[in-house]
């Protein structure tokens, strides 16, 4: 399975989880919380990133579940 980032995006009056670059949604949800939970599990399984948008399209959440391109620096 390809490691595609998962996006949670508004889709009319619903929320969609969509793999990055896909033209169709993987799954639709009535609320954002359910979409985030599904997207999080998918991103964990694919070792990819979860990115969520607000209704206005602005990104408001990002979390990496795989190879983080910008890991935090060690504080030791």
UniProtKB/TrEMBL annotation:
Superkingdom of the organism of origin: Bacteria
InterPro entries documented for this protein: DUF2188 (IPR018691)
Disordered as annotated region, ranges: 44-76
Listed name of the protein: DUF2188 domain-containing protein
């Amino acid at each position: 399975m390809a490691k595609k980032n998962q996006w949670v995006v508004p889709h009319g009056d619903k929320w969609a989880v969509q793999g990055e670059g896909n033209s169709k949604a993987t799954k639709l949800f009535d609320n954002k919380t359910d979409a985030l939970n599904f997207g999080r599990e998918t991103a964990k399984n694919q070792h990819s990133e979860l990115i969520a948008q607000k209704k206005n399209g602005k990104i408001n959440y990002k979390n990496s579940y795989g190879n983080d391109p910008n890991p935090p620096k060690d504080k030791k």
